[in-house]
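Narrative of activities, Objective 1.

The group set out to show that a structural description can be obtained from nothing but a protein's sequence at a throughput compatible with the screening campaign. Below is one input-output pair from the validation batch, recorded exactly as produced.
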Amino acid sequence: MSALTTIDFHGAKLIAIAGDRPETTLVAMKPIVEGMGLAWEKQRERINEHPVLGSAPTIRGAQMPGDDQERQHLFMPLARINFWLATVNPKQIKNEAVRARVIEYQTEAADVLFNHFFGRAIAAGDHLTAGQTGGIVKAVVTKMRGELMADIRAEIKAELVPVLENLRVTHQTGTSAVTDKTAKEWLEEYGCVAKGRQALVRQLGNALRRIAMREGIALLECARTGTDLFPTSLARPYMEGPGKAMIRLHNAAVKDGQSALRLPGMPSTLHRIAARRAARRMTDSEMARALGICTNALPTVRAEHPTPLPELRSQLRGAARALMQLWDDLDHEETFARFAASRAKELEGAH
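Output recorded for this entry:
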């Protein structure tokens, strides 16, 4: 039977078997787990099933304080205690007292054990054997290296994950191409003059978002600008048609010294539509609900499920608003397309 060392820790007991270095100093796991307020059997299973920690523990016969006989107990090398403590996630513990206790152990327990067995030896380094010195230095360096690598991995992850999430890269022979761009970047690719194009950026973004919603395409967000990214498969067809017409009109207006928002000959219909569209818009789900619920006004439905007239009128107003918004969207696209085509022909004739 190995001699046990008992260490007081905030009213609890840390029990260990002394060794000449952290790898051979063994810590009894059950007292630590129960001292944290966790279920021992569950933690024992997690340790045994862990791909790294599963090979670390050893079973030793020991008579624990308060027990009347020797029993088999699971011990973990002191060098692995911090590793195991890190596998316990305090955020998953609902009990606030237990969560605080877990954090206390994670913060202090391993240091208390290390200092108890090796703190005085480190302070009186002249009395250390070569084996003890090497073991302690190796343990400290290994611990520092592990903590440093964890910090480096966390920093790399923090830097790279947003970039990887916001870029779709297509791998070709020896090359890679970014296929997602913001509305501004698509305009730049097609040669849109930068002056006064803010309105054009918003207009293109809205048009591409409507296409994405219609096609069921999920858009990523650019980490740099916070705006939507539009993939080539979605944006390219639009840019080759209406997009080019929009850019030609804008570039021509800038060349003539005119504001992109005040193109000559702009029909008043576009201004009226723009004013209506500036009002608060309904989302697709709101429109679907409004159009679906208005069937309550049908005579056969009213006969079976009577609804108060004020409520029915409110439902019909919502449906009418949804229909007007859909109608306005179609009007806007059709009118602008006609105007863009007309102006493109005029510009071709003028030049």
